[in-house]
């Protein structure tokens, strides 16, 4: 006869309630682990997906994710000329927050280097990659923009042609992929009045210049778009992504490009580390510490519950001792109950978590590795926290059965 | 089942022998001598009543020979074996209790989360029966005590008398040589109380089990073979009153 199960089925209501309570607690511990994973995953997701061998960024900066990086757009042509480089892509990246009807639409805008990069690498759940150089965008599903929707950003209207799955910035915002020209237009979008004022300022500055006085036709150019002005530099991009002919050349190529005094080169791994050590490090350790704290709390609460469960049975335990039950019978009763409770709590945490976590605004990633780790922790907690109850059961005198 | 063995048979075996048991609780100012120089010999199949006023040391004596409350001095022999030499145990008391002793107490002392049948079954299992054998034996015992039909009830659903009968069944589970009962009928009306007392006699006479019962109930004294009285820690054998027999 299994005493542990007999006791549980006699007090089934209390047991279920306790298991649900422990389950919820474990679910939070599990969720914390998942959030931690999610933060790390999300942070490095873009770097992994972009799959560049080298990141060329503004000299002495830590790249486009950690801080602002500006390099000239022409840099991609320069990089392409280096032997061993197969592809050099422009990378434009920034976050915008606009109003879409009633809701705040916050998105990370990522420029694709048209026509080298049409977004074929982006995991699409719907639609297609970019088909033309301008005015199309691929939106992540977390942005909740339906396929075919026309959205107005700045002065232009863009059409959603593709929906990506799980493309999230390190800050957790959904990514919108545009051609780099569009991404720059969005970034540099200024109100019409500001444009007019800027052009007027250019004209008046031009009038004071010798060149402007000698060649009045030049002043007409001042009213054209900035991008079309030969004398004004094209707007700068965030970085250049280099893909190599042979990934093993990374070091040599990085040395060549790194020799240029206006840029710094990172390998993809270095870029990933910069991100993990930089922008997400604090969040990561915050969540990590919180998780440890929660685990400790779960241990204490479980110990308390198991101790009370044992105290409730102390009379029965003394009685069992009186009629000659050996310590292993009593140990079995307490430990089995602890393990059953721990296992049920874990199962409840898992099942409920599977339902709840996907509804969280940011990704909660439950890896099987983390599950196994938590299961091991729960196992140890169950055993350790029954220690107090076991001790109580061992010292209780059979005399207590008569009290 | 062993053959009946009347108490006055000269070939009767000694089931339990307590020699000069003394129990002192506390020390110094708070010292209480609960039992002094108490001796008793009980034959196999003998049913003994232990009488006496409250606080006289009856429970102290019973728990001492029940091996759950070691005496300060004196010797206890059970089944011809010296078990306690003063407070010193000469064997593993818990397993000795499991094999040789059965207990019944004032409150029924059943395990609340086990059904009546299971309460008996667990005692059988602790004595090494397989769970199938234990179940069968439990039902036999409950049948013997006339409450087989309530084997599926939890103790809380049984009356006090029914609980006591289950407790007696459990005490019999290990075929003990001695049953120790401390005021087993205190919670019962006199009719049910007498029924339980008669059960002890039945078990003793049919199975050769010795029974020591602490009781305040003078109306049932006629069922006992021997009467002892405890007074202020002193134990004396009493002659059976003819009045009780005449009842
Ligand atoms: N654990 C203990 N510590 C100290 N003194 C005790 C303890 N147990 C019993 N006593 C004392 O020993 C004496 C005998 O107690 P005992 O319980 O044996 O009496 P009893 O005859 O069973 O009484 P009752 O009929 O009320 O059950 C009492 O004076 C009691 O106060
Ligand atoms: Mg008493």
Can you offer a commentary on this structure?
The complex is a heterodimer of chains A (403) and B (247). By secondary structure, chain A is α+β, with helices and mostly antiparallel strands. Chain A folds into 3 domains: 3-43 and 281-402, no CATH class; 60-187 and 237-261, no CATH class; 189-234. In chain A, 51% of the residues lie in helices and 17% in strands. Chain A contains 14 helices and 10 strands. Chain A has helices at 3-10, 12-50, 75-80, 180-187, 192-208, 210-214, 216-221, 250-258, 268-277, 281-312, 314-322, 327-356, 368-385, 387-395, and strands at residues 54-58, 85-100, 103-112, 124-127, 136-140, 150-153, 156-164, 174-179, 239-244, 263-267. In chain A, a hairpin with a 2-residue loop joins strand 2 and strand 3. The model of chain A has no long low-confidence stretch (mean pLDDT 88). Chain B has 247 residues and is an alpha/beta fold. Chain B has a domain at 3-108 and 177-238: Rossmann fold, CATH 3.40.50. Chain B is 31% helix and 28% strand. Chain B is built from 7 helices and 11 strands. In chain B, the strands form 2 sheets. Chain B has a 6-stranded mixed beta sheet. A 5-stranded antiparallel beta sheet of chain B has the order 2-1-4-5-6, covered by helices on one side. Chains A and B meet through helix 1 and helix 11 of A and helix 2 and helix 3 of B.
Topology:
The complex is a heterodimer of chains A (403) and B (247).
Chain A: H1 3-10, H2 12-50, E1 54-58, H3 75-80, E2 85-100, E3 103-112, E4 124-127, E5 136-140, E6 150-153, E7 156-164, E8 174-179, H4 180-187, H5 192-208, H6 210-214, H7 216-221, E9 239-244, H8 250-258, E10 263-267, H9 268-277, H10 281-312, H11 314-322, H12 327-356, H13 368-385, H14 387-395
Parallel strand pairs in A: 3-8, 5-7
Antiparallel strand pairs in A: 1-9, 1-10, 2-3, 2-9, 4-7, 5-8, 6-7
Chain B: E1 14-25, E2 32-43, E3 47-51, H1 58-65, E4 73-78, E5 81-85, E6 88-89, H2 93-100, E7 101-105, H3 116-126, H4 131-144, H5 160-172, E8 178-182, H6 190-207, E9 210-214, E10 226-231, E11 234-238, H7 242-246
Parallel strand pairs in B: 3-9, 3-10, 7-8, 8-9
Antiparallel strand pairs in B: 1-2, 1-4, 4-5, 5-6, 10-11
Helix pairs in contact in B: 3-4, 3-5, 4-5, 5-6
The structure holds adenosine-5'-triphosphate (ATP) and magnesium ion.
């Amino acid at each position: 006869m299994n005493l542990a199960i007999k006791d549980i089925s006699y007090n089934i209501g209390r047991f279920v309630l306790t298991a649900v309570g422990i389950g919820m607690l474990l679910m939070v511990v599990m969720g914390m682990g998942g959030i931690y994973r999610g933060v790390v995953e999300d942070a490095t997701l873009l770097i992994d997906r972009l799959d560049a061998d080298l990141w060329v960024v503004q000299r002495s900066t830590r790249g486009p994710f950690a801080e602002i990086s500006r390099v000239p757009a022409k840099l991609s042509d320069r990089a392409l000329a280096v032997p061993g480089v197969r592809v050099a892509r422009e990378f434009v990246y920034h976050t915008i927050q606009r109003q879409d009807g009633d809701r705040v639409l916050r998105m990370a805008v990522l420029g694709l280097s048209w026509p080298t990069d049409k977004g074929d690498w982006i995991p699409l759940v719907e639609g297609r990659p970019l088909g033309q150089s301008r005015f199309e965008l691929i939106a992540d599903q977390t942005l909740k923009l339906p396929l075919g929707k026309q959205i107005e950003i700045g002065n232009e209207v863009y059409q959603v042609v593709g929906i990506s799955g799980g493309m999230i910035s390190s800050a957790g915002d959904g990514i919108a992929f545009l051609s780099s020209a569009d991404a720059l237009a969005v970034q540099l979008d200024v109100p019409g009045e500001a444009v007019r004022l800027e052009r007027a300022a250019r004209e008046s500055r031009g009038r004071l210049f010798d060149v402007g006085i000698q060649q009045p036709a030049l002043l007409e150019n001042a009213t054209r778009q900035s991008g079309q002005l030969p004398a004004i530099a094209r707007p700068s991009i965030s970085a250049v992504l280099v893909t190599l002919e042979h990934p093993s050349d990374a070091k040599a190529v990085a040395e060549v490009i790194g020799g240029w005094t206006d840029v710094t080169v990172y390998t993809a791994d270095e870029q990933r580390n910069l991100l993990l050590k930089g922008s997400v490090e604090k969040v990561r350790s915050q969540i990590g510490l919180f998780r440890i704290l929660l685990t400790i709390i779960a241990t204490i609460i479980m110990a308390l519950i198991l101790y009370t469960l044992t105290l409730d049975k102390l009379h029965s335990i003394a009685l069992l001792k009186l009629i000659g039950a050996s310590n292993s019978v009593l140990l079995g009763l307490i430990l089995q109950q602890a393990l059953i409770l721990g296992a049920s709590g874990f199962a409840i945490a898992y099942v409920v978590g599977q339902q709840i976590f996907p509804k969280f605004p940011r990704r909660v990633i439950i890896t099987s590795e983390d599950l196994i780790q938590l299961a091991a922790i729960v196992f140890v907690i169950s055993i350790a926290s029954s220690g107090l109850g076991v001790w109580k059961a061992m010292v209780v005198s059979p005399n207590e059965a008569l009290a | 089942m062993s053959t009946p063995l009347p108490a006055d048979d000269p070939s009767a075996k000694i089931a339990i022998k307590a020699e000069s048991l003394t129990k002192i609780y506390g020390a110094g100012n708070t010292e209480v001598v609960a039992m002094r120089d108490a001796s008793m010999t009980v034959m196999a199949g003998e049913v003994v009543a232990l009488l006496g006023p409250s606080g006289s040391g009856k429970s102290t004596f019973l728990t001492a020979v029940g091996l759950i409350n070691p005496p300060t001095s004196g010797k206890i022999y059970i089944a011809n074996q010296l078990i306690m030499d003063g407070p010193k145990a000469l064997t593993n008391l818990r397993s000795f209790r499991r094999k040789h002793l059965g207990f019944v107490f004032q409150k029924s002392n059943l395990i609340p989360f086990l059904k009546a049948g299971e309460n008996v079954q667990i005692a059988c299992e602790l004595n090494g029966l397989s769970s199938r054998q234990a179940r069968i034996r439990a039902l036999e015992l409950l049948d013997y005590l006339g409450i087989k039909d309530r084997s599926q009830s939890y103790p809380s659903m049984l009356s006090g008398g029914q609980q006591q009968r289950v407790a007696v069944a459990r005490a019999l589970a290990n075929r003990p040589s001695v049953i120790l009962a401390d005021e087993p009928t205190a919670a019962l009306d006199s009719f049910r109380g007498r029924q339980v007392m008669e059960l002890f006699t039945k078990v003793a006479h049919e199975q050769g089990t010795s029974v020591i019962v602490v009781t305040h109930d003078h109306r049932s004294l006629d069922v006992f073979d021997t009467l002892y009285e405890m007074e202020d820690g002193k134990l004396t054998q009493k002659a059976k009153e003819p009045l009780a027999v005449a009842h």
